[in-house]
Amino acid sequence: MTIAVLFITLFGCMLIGMPIAVALGLSSVTTILLFSNDSLASIALKLFEATSEHYTLLAIPFFILSSAFLSTGGVAKRLINFAVDSVGHIRGGLAMASVMACMLFAAVSGSSPATVAAIGTICIAGMVRSGYPQSFAAGVIANAGTLGILIPPSIVMLVYAAATEVSASRMFMAGFIPGLMMGFILMIAIYIVARIKGLPSQPFPGFKALAKSGVIALGGLMLIIIVLGSIYGGVASPTEAAAVAAVYGYFIAVMGYRDIGPMKGMPWKHEGEGVAAASVRNLFQMLVALPKSVFDPEVRKVILDASKVSMMLLFIIANAMLFAHVLTTERIPHTIASAIMEWGLPAWGFLIVMNILLLIAGNFMEPSAILLIMAPILFPIAMQLGIDPIHLGIIMVVNMEIGMLTPPVGLNLFVTAGITGQNMIWVIKACLPWLCLLLGFLMLITYVPQISLFLPEYIDQLKGY
Amino acid sequence: AVAAPVEIKFSHVVAENTPKGQMAIKFKELVDERLAGKVEVSVFPNSQLFGDNKVLEAMLLGDVQMAAPSLSKFQKYTKSLQIFDLPFLFKDMEAVEKFQQGPDGQKLLSSLKKKGLIGLGYLHNGMKQMSASNPLKVPSDASGKKFRIMTSDVLQAQFEAVDAVPLKKPFSEVFTLLQTQAIDGQENTWSNIYSKKFFEVQPYITETNHGVLDYLVVTSTEFWMSLDDDLRTEIQKALNDAIVYGNGIAAQKGDSDKQLIIDSKRSEVLTLTAEERQQWVEAMKPVWKKFEDEIGADLIKAAEAANN
Amino acid sequence: MIKRVVSQFEEGFLSLLLVSMTLLVFAEVIARFGFNAGIHWAQEVTLLLAAWFVLFGASYGVKVGAHIGVDVFVKMMPPGTHRFFTLVAIALCLVYCGLFLYGSWIYLSKMKMIGIELEDLPVPKWIPMSILVIGFVLLIFRFLQLGWKVVKGEADGFHFADEAEESMELAKELQETALGDEPSINKNTKEGK
Ligand code: NA
Ligand code: NA
Question: For A116-143, what is the mean pLDDT?
Fold first, then answer.
């Protein structure tokens, strides 16, 4: 009965278009009022606790802020240049380079649709011009874009870590190999198609040009080194590393690349200017730019955008914690878990059921919301079946990637339709063959836990734990 | 009609297999056995209901009836309970027990009354040890090192007294910070060092026994006074029995966890000579003076007397 | 005019909260790693800033449509039905706010009565906690405003933020600048159509 009221109110509220956060909160409060004698005051206390006692959650706004600075257009272009210079000369190279650019961008950004938009805008048009079919180009990018949440840093992983209390830095490490693997699987598939269809390649620009574009792209790519480096180098905890990443994001975008903000268009070195003179001038200009940033409309817009997204996510999370609180006090996961355990499903059977559930949810909802609702229910069952929490997290993330590509709610589909100017049906068809690849990859990730667990366990071993 | 049973929600933040978790379960069993139909206890472990920071507020709102936060959590409710954080005040758990059960210790239980809470009894975890990434033998070994502490003014002063840097960090971040040596050390009981796996990331543990980590079982005055006298006495009795049981487990677990840590060989356990220990005592003793006004000089004397 | 001042204040304050949180945690790292020191009040203040950020921001989120929701189903309905459901949804949002406002008020009064201070700062605890009440009052105001717009026919739904739509902004920006400095692949961006 309690279960029914809780879920019917939740889904009812969501169907009529209420904000997910409010739907979660209202269904929780209703259930508490009807079935328990907790006071409204203690529910308010619980909500305040959810917003003010979870230090690790702060990694979410920090990473979003850092992504916001690094997702400005210039970073994407530099990454694409580097990717084209590295693999453009192989047959089907431009498509492979697009995948690689998506992977690189994923290492900077925690969001999938942003990856598609940033890389797709330039790469799809570029591929078409070089003689690729447009649907091929669109399909490749929409799929490769999903890597945004698998390759660290990833907002979705942080949300999973928050919902289940597993270590965020271990989740990040765990996403690394699957992310690279998925990228390479896509590239191999592209190579095979390119061979069959005789798709073109670009001339190799030479190692010097490659090195140069690599160095230019490094400013963005340093982010992942800074994040993982400061965690493993003993400088910061994962939450603190996220704050460091945000500060770095500001410096690299405003003072390094100068695509936005008060230093926009200022060259590092004028023609004919000496190195010493340029250094002094740059240093001085940077010191001036620091206070100027406070009033700079572009910088302010980046921060405001990040604020909006972070606040929205944290408000959902706070309400989802209330929801999870109701779930546990009413022993609902326990009830569902014992029901599922009664079916006598083995671990592999449970994983199939879970994948199907998540794929269905992925049709209608966005990843963070799905994880926050499903993780507290599925997690305890998985633990009883002896599934590793990190492995479970990666399976969920890959499911969320697929959800980005399935109608009617698929963020990557929307973005791809937007940048190609095609309709949704066309985009769905273009993505379909690649989506099958992703489904195969999901099976692989589900039943070969070592792919996800190898790196975090190896690092533990290195450190002798 | 029969009146509905009194409901007691007991909320704590640790697992069921810890001494505190076991004590709570024992309490429930005893109440079920002795007060069937009159009182019903439900235990919520693992911060399922509330974390330690919010549980006292929830208690004041009447949504939790019992909890057992560590004594350091009460510093904003009463200054006198800070006495348990003072370094090198008690020489061992026997002295702690003697003081707690004595007249002064019992009087402290009602020191929270003004804020609407009543202490029902002390529950042991054990004596605290120091762990670090370098061997700590004399106070100067700790100088300049970063130690994680619980939020407590006394503990902050304690580490500042040996020129160490006390840092407040949420428990959730401590393991990683110790692992990567972003923080050098921490202080805790044997059972916490074992259960939180700190011994896996801290190469040296010094058996300092420099302080005590105990819990206070509390309830709200409003709830406690609403009970009939007989019922209150019975509940208190059941709780006292459960506490004795829990303290037994705590003592046993302290010893066995210490042995498990030594056997793991991941961490070297150092002991102090009488001389070295004296250096620590002298370095940290000024902390007593600093908090004498807040805690009360007589109370500190009474606690010291428990050592004899 | 007033509208613009209010907007600017809301935006500025929200950004300020996020930036202070970030810088405070960053400062802690610098203090610890660079100067071997701690900032003993940083943790508590950071967390309170987070509470303010979320509870203050929620109402701003309603105003600018930053919250997310599932609107595929209501959007498939005829406009009249869509508006009807939106009004029901807004009414339920108000119920939510009302319940929380009531609970928050009792909680806050109790905290004020007991009168304890923050752990690390000599400030009564109820003062930073007052954002609970402030936040829900603002939220009620924004939902009423939205409801009025729907009644007048100026809006039909919550106008959920669309990550997809926002990403498109990035795409637009890239398309605008792509022609200049990208000789290898982007000369004919428009050919894709
Ligand atoms: Na990413
Ligand atoms: Na979908």
Answer: 84
Nearest CA to C74 among A16, A22, A13? A16
Contacts of B226 by beta carbon, 8 Å cutoff, 6+ apart: none
- Residue C159 belongs to domain spanning: 2-178
Task: Say if residues B205 and B270 touch (Cβ distance below 8 Å).
Answer: yes
Q: How many residues does chain A have?
A: 465
Joined tokens for residue B115: 């804020």
Full 3-state SS string of A55-110: HHHHHHHHHHHHHHHHCCHHHHHHHHHHHHHHHCCCCCHHHHHHHHHHHHHHCCCC
**Looking at residue C163, what is its pLDDT?**
65
Contact criterion met (CB < 8 Å) for C38 and B167: yes
Spatial separation of the C-alpha atoms in residues A139 and A145, rounded to whole Å: 10
Within a domain: C85: yes
Interface B-C, measured as beta-carbon pairs within 8 A, has a size of 44
Q: Residue C45: inside a domain, yes or no?
A: yes
Question: Is A386 among the domain residues?
Answer: no
The total number of structural domains that make up chain C: 1
Report how far residue B162's alpha carbon sits from residue B85's, in angstroms, rounded to the nearest whole number: 16
Q: Which pLDDT band, with edges at 50, 70 and 90, does B162 fall under?
A: very high
Q: Is residue C11 part of a domain?
A: yes
Residue A440, domain member (yes or no):
no
CA of A110 to the centre of ligand 1 (A): 4
In the predicted model, is pLDDT for residue C188 greater than 50?
no
Quick check: A236 contacting B, CB < 8 Å? yes
Decide: A404 and A155 in contact? Cβ < 8 Å: no
Number of H helices, E strands in chain C: 7, 0
Closest-CA distance of chain A to residue C42, Å: 12
Which of the two residues, B159 and A372, has the higher pLDDT score? B159
CB-CB neighbors (< 8 A) of B48 in chain A: 325, 328-329
Q: Please give the tally of structural domains in chain A.
A: 1
- Note whether residue C58 is domain-resident: yes
CA separation for the pair C171, C169 (Å, rounded): 5
For residue A112, report the distance from its CA to the centre of ligand 1, in Å: 8
* Residues B291, B300: Cα–Cα separation, whole Å: 10
Can you give the pLDDT at residue A170? 83
For residue B17, how far is the Cα from the chain centroid? 17
Ligand nearest to the CA of A157: 1
Q: Which of residues 131-150 of C touch A (CB under 8 A)?
A: 132
B7: nearest CA partner in chain A: A37
Nearest to B76 among C38, C40, C117 (CB): C117
pLDDT in tens, A246-278: 998 898 888 888 888 888 878 887 888 888 888
Do A431 and A133 meet the contact criterion of CB atoms below 8 Å apart?
Answer: no
C189 Cα to the center of ligand 2, angstroms? 28
Residue A248 forms part of a structural domain: yes
Structure tokens, A339:
């029901």
Q: What is the pLDDT of residue C144?
A: 95
Q: How many residues does chain C have?
A: 193
Domain limits for position A114: 57-301
Residue A310 lies in a domain: no
Mean per-residue pLDDT, B6-28: 88
Give the integer Cα–Cα distance in Å for A220 and A302: 16
